[in-house]
Amino acid sequence: MVRLSPEKHPQIAAVSHQAARKGEFTEMPPTLAASVREALANAGIGRLYSHQLRAFELARAGRNVIVTTPSASGKSLCFNLPVLDALAAEDRRRALYLYPTKALSQDQVRKLQALRLPFARPAIYDGDTPAGHRPQIRKRANIILTNPDMLHVGILPHHGAWRDFFFNLKYVIIDEAHCYRGVFGSHVANVVRRLRRICAIYGGRPRFLLTTATIANPAELARSLTGLDFELIDEDGSAQGERQIVFWNPPVVDKALGIRKSTLAEAAALFADLLGRQARTIVFARTRKAVELIYKHAARLLEASPGLAEKIAPYRGGYTPAQRREIEEGLFAGRLLGVAATSALELGVDVGGVDAVISAGFPGTVASLWQQWGRAGRGGRESLAVFIAGLDALDQFFMAHPDELLERDVEAAILDFSNEQIFAGHLAAAAFESPIEPADEKFFGPGMVAAASALEVEGELRRKDGSFFRARSDFPAALISLRSASPDSFTIVVEGTGDVLGEVEAERAFIFVHPGAIYLHLGETYQVERLDLEGRTALVRRILADFYTQPKKETDVEIAERTRKRAAGNIELSFGRLLVTEQVTAYQKKLLADNQVLEKVPLDLPEQNFPTEGFWFTLPERVAAAAGARDLAGGLHGAEHGLIALLPLFAMCDRWDIGGLSTEMHWQTGGPTIFVYDGHPGGVGISRSGFDSFEALANGAHKLISCCPCESGCPSCIQSPKCGNLNEPLSKAAAIEILEKIL
User: Fold this and answer.
1) Who contacts 309 (Cβ-Cβ below 8 Å, separation ≥6)?
2) C-alpha span between 73 and 315 (Å, rounded)
3) Which residues contact 475 (CB under 8 A, 6 or more apart)?
4) 537 domain-assigned
5) Looking at per-residue confidence, does 487 or 454 come out higher?
6) Is the peptide bond before 729 cis (omega within 30 degrees of 0)?
7) pLDDT value at position 444?
8) In what side-by-side order are the strands of the sheet with 489-494?
9) Is 70 exceeded by the pLDDT of residue 594?
10) Quick one: residue 12, left, alpha or beta (phi over 0 = left, psi -120 to 50 = alpha)?
11) How many domains does the chain have?
12) What backbone torsions phi and psi does residue 120 show, to the nearest 5 degrees?
């Protein structure tokens, strides 16, 4: 077993060990179909973990079930057993498997086919499925594997061709359910409600079986996604090998600026070192470009070791399905010794026995970090898990306080299916599928009639005899992107070729694709040449650049409605509906090497505003006076950054999903005020989680800033890479004073 020691590696900030755990096994249930039991025995599975048996028993009893256990704990059998048992009993029954990625669908098909059960006919039905194969799949397959996007736009609007499938649908499987959070989760929750409604129209009443990584609110997430009640299974009966956990902090190279050695260079060097010791290793990085850079650097380091450089590969989105399958199978079969991967490999694709996992930078949530580490140590093997910190405030917080990570409860997965803009679009899609009846409230909730009436006023729906019909002849599902809270978006197009790189919400377009902005796609660098406001298009050209851009924006927040308030320490904390107005006024060009500002370029762009939700508080006079003696504006700004930096620890989100404003005098509150709000139109519940956990959030922000060794603030504490004011003004001392005094 490979181990790392602080004596050899001074970068190691802390080491911890997880003890091995024996599995809790049970015999195969006697009620399981004999053919399924025999197929499992032939595959080497002669008994079950305790949680697998519990899932089978509850599903067979007609319950909706959610299983939340760590990686490599055998969650697939929790739903495959009841599905295969049901198909063995009655061939006409059907099952629908929903996966967030195509790789997971492919992996599951391989597992099902390997059992060689003649009555199980699995088939993938997604955007890659040839049109000529689709009618036969609809007719013959009894296990359909797809993704929410295809269900939303390719199946539900054409439900007439699927009537037999929906009538006989016995189980709906939602694997990796923790992926459905934020904007994406809010959309998927509406798609699932539309699915339930269509099933009911054809007389189907499927049961739902969900699996998720370990999260704080699995039962709540299951209810939010489906609108149904669930039985929760959260006791893990699987075996776990001993694990060494290492916190690795790159050395400081510039004390004055708080700059450390590159996380990617450190990851590549450690990757090469472990491969040299024949340890099968996965390195996780947050971006596709980071994955490619780690791979290239590691390959160069391994050139002196004959044959080793050929045994590693990068794995990320953007590859063809065949390329991804080849890499997965190479790792599983042992032809590859190591892979540098994005989170695409973090999910449940079976890659066999892995010895070590390196996480190059905090992946955004504690749950994701444990999910990554769980890719090593399958079947009770000993393993190594390494967290290499970036310069980000959250990474450095964990380096200084490793117990805050190791002992911390994982985050909650937050979504809001009733987000006004998201909900309205799906109601229009539902009306296209079948007129909305008053009884449909059981699927869409008590706000359905009011939302449908608003769509009637807008000319989207028409009412007749109490039901709502689609008033237009267009195809509403095609207008809804499941990754965006807003129906209005800008298309990113390569100038000259017309190639489409993607889309960005209109509310965020001026931040990410303003004229002159650097835009990264599949590891390539593009610069925005022109932003066409009327045509909703950003024209970009590919360039070689040693700089990046950071926009400067002016923000104003108006309180539309306060819906909740409570005491929190020495302040009154409020939560409610906000109207955010932003105007991007300029951008900076900064060198990639050292963040040096090359130039500041003015922009002439219109104001944008969007409704959202958030929490806010006003400083008491004595706290404002104490901070004012240092720098009130800089202290408010620094405290705001600290709160935003740590909020992802309470809701599974990215820092870019959160907005904020701090001001010495707000016209509605009458004093110095800090706002923290959801960065998506309508809000998706992120700031609500911060309101509920404010004391812990503020304490964490205080600890983050006060324990940072820098003198006046740095990227590891109060400086933010997304600050619209370009990190001006900031005062570390005043921020500490504010956070200390309010609690």
Assistant:
1) 299, 302, 303
2) 23
3) 157, 432
4) no
5) 454
6) yes
7) 97
8) 500-505, 489-494, 537-542, 524-532, 518-521
9) no
10) beta
11) 4
12) -90, 120
The tokens describing 641, both together, are: 């950054």
- Which of the listed residues 233, 257, 287 is the one where a domain comes to its end? 233
Angle at 202 between CA 199 and CA 206, to 5 degrees: 35
**CA–CA dist 657, 648 (Å, integer):** 9
- Classify strands 259-260 and 281-285 as parallel, antiparallel or unpaired: unpaired
Q: Tell me how many helices (H) and strands (E) the chain has.
A: 24, 31
Note whether residue 525 is domain-resident. Answer: no
Identify whether residues 386 and 337 lie together within a single domain.
yes
The answer to whether residue 489 is domain-embedded is no
369 SS3 class: helix
- The reported pLDDT for the residue numbered 350 is 64
What is the C-alpha to C-alpha distance for residues 388 and 327, in angstroms, rounded to an integer? 24
* Whether residue 662 sits in one domain with residue 581: yes
Average pLDDT over residues 357-382: 87
CATH number at residue 197: 3.40.50.300
Amino acid 346: pLDDT: 67
Residue type, 594: D
Pair (469, 582) in one structural domain: no
pTM as predicted: 0.87
Residue 462, strand partner residues: 469
Please state, in angstroms and rounded to a whole number, the distance separating the CA atoms of residues 194 and 155: 11
What's residue 522's pLDDT?
Answer: 59
- Choosing from 464, 479, 494, the residue where a domain stops is 479
Q: Provide the domain limits for residue 156.
A: 25-233
pLDDT band at 289 (very low <50, low <70, confident <90, very high): confident
Residue 463 pLDDT:
95
Same-domain status, 385 and 448 = no
Q: How far apart are CA 449 and CA 437, in angstroms?
A: 9
Q: Which of 455, 523, 243 is nearest to 355 (CA)?
A: 243
* Residue 595 shares a structural domain with residue 473: no
Residue type at 662 in one-letter notation? S
Q: Which residues of 108-138 are buried (b: 16+ CB within 10 A; e: fewer)?
A: bbbebeebebeebbbbbbbeeeeeeeeeebb
- The Cα–Cα gap between 704 and 35 comes to 57
Tens of pLDDT, residue by residue over 513-524, are 999 999 877 557
Helix (H) or strand (E) holding 373: helix 366-373
Query: Same domain for 68 and 144?
Result: yes
Q: pLDDT tens, 548-577?
A: 898 999 999 999 999 999 999 999 999 999
CATH number, domain of 432, equals 1.10.10
- Type and span of the H or E element at 338: strand 338-341
The Cα 299–Cα 313 span in angstroms is: 9
* Backbone dihedral region for residue 678 (phi beyond 0: left; psi -120 to 50: alpha; all else: beta): beta
Q: Are residues 424 and 390 in the same domain?
A: no
- pLDDT score for 721: 76
The reply to whether 443 and 589 lie within a common domain is no
| Cβ 733 vs Cβ 739: under 8 Å | no
Within a domain: 508: no
